């Protein structure tokens, strides 16, 4: 593969742009905010489920309270009716005794029902407190999620800007490179991730492996317009005065 040494050197600019594009892609996939968001979404779901469960308990209790109140009202209405009959003076003594007995029973029943109602109300109050606490927890979790999402979006905007700039640089570089050299570079980049690197101080810039003396002398003797590849990683080795040849 032959290529003008100046064109070979321009490959280094392209490799730098491609490395930056690869970093952008890597950062898009691995930015810590992504894991934070997944975690925060999980927390929001859990807190929201907890709140719904409490709301269901409260609804159940409200129904029980309403039932209990209705029953108390019914007992009270019966007591009122009985008291009226007692006061009416139309009952004989047997009926009076029965009525007094029934009233006493109703009063005991009412007292039990009222105690139960009080207990229900206390339970409701405790669960209502749990609900308020769960609501605060949910709001906190939602805030954490929104905060992480905001940071992710900021990062994405930065990455978009960076990527657009690099892509513009790349679009400018491409027409300056011979098509066959570019295709050669792209094949290596597709296989190894890095298409070309600078040979500097006897090391390949892509794999950082030191090149042995025999290979160095072979490279030294290779004409400048001949494309040299790293024997270790396959990247195009671009020679410049920094190469130490
Ligand atoms: Zn290498």
Automatic annotation (TrEMBL):
C4-type zinc ribbon domain boundaries: 203-237
Coiled-coil segments on the chain, per record: 51-123
UniProt domain CT398-like coiled coil hairpin: residue ranges: 14-193
Gene3D superfamilies according to UniProt: 1.10.287.1490
Lineage, top ranks: Bacteria, Bacillati, Actinomycetota, Actinomycetes, Pseudonocardiales
Keyword Coiled coil applies: yes
InterPro entries xref list: CT398_CC_hairpin, Oxidative_Scav/Glycosyltrans, Zf-RING_7
Highest taxon listed in the record's lineage: Bacteria
Pfam families on file: CT398_CC, Zn_ribbon_9
Keyword set, alphabetical order: Coiled coil
Record's protein name: Uncharacterized protein
């Amino acid at each position: 593969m032959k290529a003008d040494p100046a064109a070979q050197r321009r490959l280094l600019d392209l490799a730098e742009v491609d490395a930056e594009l690869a970093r952008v892609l890597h950062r898009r996939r691995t930015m810590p905010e992504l894991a934070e968001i997944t975690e925060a979404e999980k927390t929001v779901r859990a807190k929201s489920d907890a709140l719904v469960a409490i709301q269901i308990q409260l609804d159940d209790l409200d129904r029980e309270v309403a039932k209990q109140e209705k029953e108390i009202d019914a007992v009270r209405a019966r007591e009122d009716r009985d008291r009226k009959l007692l006061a009416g003076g139309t009952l004989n003594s047997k009926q009076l005794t029965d009525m007094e007995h029934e009233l006493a029973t109703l009063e005991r029943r009412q007292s039990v029902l009222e105690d139960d109602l009080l207990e229900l109300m206390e339970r409701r109050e405790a669960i209502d407190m749990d609900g308020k606490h769960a609501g605060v927890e949910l709001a906190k979790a939602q805030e954490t999620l929104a905060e992480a999402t905001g940071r992710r979006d900021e990062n994405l905007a930065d990455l978009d800007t960076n990527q657009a700039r690099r892509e513009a640089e790349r679009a400018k570089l491409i027409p300056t490179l011979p098509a066959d050299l570019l295709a050669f570079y792209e094949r290596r980049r597709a296989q190894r991730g890095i298409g070309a690197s600078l040979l500097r101080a006897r090391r390949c810039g892509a794999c950082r492996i030191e090149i042995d003396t025999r290979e160095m002398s072979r490279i030294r003797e290779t004409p400048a317009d001949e494309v040299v590849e790293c024997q270790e990683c396959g990247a195009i080795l671009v020679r410049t005065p920094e190469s130490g040849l």
